[in-house]
Amino acid sequence: MLPTRLRKNIGIRNLVRETQLSMNDVVYPLFVVDGQGIRREIGAMKDQYHLSLDMLGAEILALKELGIRYVILFGVPDEKDGEATPAFAENGLVQEAIRIIKKTDPGMYIITDVCLCEYKSDGHCCFFEDDGDIKRGKTLETLSKTALSHAEAGADMVAPSDMMDGRIGHMRETLDRAGYESIPIMAYSAKYASSFYGPFREAANSAPAFGDRKSYQMDPANSKEALKEIMLDIDEGADIVMVKPAMPYLDIIAQGKELSYLPMAAYQVSGEYAMIRTAVDNGLMDSRVIFESLLSIKRAGADIIITYFAKELQAMLKDYQ
């Protein structure tokens, strides 16, 4: 415990505070959709929006004013198919969004989510054999092809969220072979099969048409498995590892940070956002709880926090820190 004089001295409080938040800690998710003139609020996620490409430039400038310098892109196309071809199309939603953002603000750092669930007609992150087993070779090829298309469009980092075994190594080799050795990979290393993803599935229109994703996402009861997955991704060449969701798995963030020398990311997912947003908007909690939630994730060991609250952080830093 700090000496009483230090705890009471407001002027020195920030100097001795163990955990500090800044705008450099947060990444803001963006959902890009087909169409024109669309800035449509996502029903399950108040104050979060689907954006058509023509609305993206204005949004990026607004984010810059709010101090946000990092975004992660999700594409939500109208048309999907069994081969996930919209994921790696040269003029796909994410690929075009990257070009628009870089033209609007070359300094905005763009991370792209690499998965197939938003682009496949069955809503799954992989392909399947006739007997139901994962068709691993085809899945890895398609994921790597998607990551490469993002790099070619100008992405600064790719973030595979599929949880397929071996995808980091395959993606690293593909990027390196094409001359993109400097593009980092942020691996969704410990991605749990969580009920906290519910609102996101509306945002990304990615609910599976059959079954669930428990065969390739993690059992919420397991922690040692998470550490194993983190180490496997590190061994395959990941540059950043991630735990998702964040607050229900703070113990995994802390253990993973101790295990790894790499930067640790955490995704404060849609369900976490929706619960806190609803509680604040209905007067059940003070808005300070938003700041406290982000602080807890940082304190647990996250260097990077993907959060839908990023737009509010700049004002909170002035009021609460």
TrEMBL record:
Residue positions binding Zn(2+): 115, 117, 125
Catalytic activity entry: 2 5-aminolevulinate = porphobilinogen + 2 H2O + H(+)
Residues the entry annotates as binding 5-aminolevulinate 1: 201, 213
One Pfam family named in its UniProt record: ALAD
E.C. designation(s): 4.2.1.24
GO CC annotation terms, alphabetical: cytosol
SUPFAM superfamilies xrefs: Aldolase
Record has Metal-binding as a keyword: yes
Cofactor annotation: Zn(2+)
Signal sequence interval, chain numbering: none
Enzyme active site: 191 (schiff-base intermediate with substrate), 244 (schiff-base intermediate with substrate)
Keywords of the record: Heme biosynthesis, Lyase, Magnesium, Metal-binding, Porphyrin biosynthesis, Zinc
Residues binding 5-aminolevulinate 2: 270, 308
Gene Ontology biological process terms from the UniProt entry: heme biosynthetic process
NCBIfam families: PRK09283.1
Its job: Catalyzes an early step in the biosynthesis of tetrapyrroles. Binds two molecules of 5-aminolevulinate per subunit, each at a distinct site, and catalyzes their condensation to form porphobilinogen.
Name this protein carries in UniProt: Delta-aminolevulinic acid dehydratase
Native organism: Acetobacterium paludosum
